[in-house]
Amino acid sequence: MHAADEISSIQSEDWRDLYLAALFEINEADIPFRIEEAEKVILARTRDLASSSDGTRERNSLDSALLALRALRTCVGETKPGTSQAESSGA
User: Fold this and answer.
1) pLDDT tens across 27-59, in order?
2) Which of 14, 30, 36, 90 is the most exposed place for a label (fewest CB within 10 A)?
3) Spatial separation of the C-alpha atoms in residues 28 and 89, rounded to whole Å
């Protein structure tokens, strides 16, 4: 395995681990922070793959993960950590 391949696989595992941590967080107060953490790593990984001709399957997984995190954020009534949905919608 080349060093670049090893870094890519580590980054791939990082976003998956953080994504799963957000999905399975049992402390409701920590969910928004887990979501934000996972989103940051997923977006960084998306940028990494943008210049690559391969990685289509992973890009699709990243898109699906972001959608799931946004749905989770809606379910717990948060748009960003520390901000209620009413505050973020201007109500």
Assistant:
1) 999 999 999 999 999 999 998 888 887 888 999
2) 90
3) 21
pTM of the prediction?
0.73
**What are the distances in angstroms from CA 57 to CA 60, 62, 64, 65, 91?**
5, 9, 11, 12, 39
Provide the b/e sequence for 34-71 (b: ≥16 CB within 10 Å). bbbbbbebbeebbebbeeeeebeebeebbeebbeebee
> E strand or H helix at 26, and its extent?
none
β-strands 83-84, 78-80: how paired?
Answer: antiparallel
Q: Enter the tokens of residue 37.
A: 């953490």
User: What backbone phi and psi angles, to 5 degrees, belong to 52?
Assistant: -105, 140
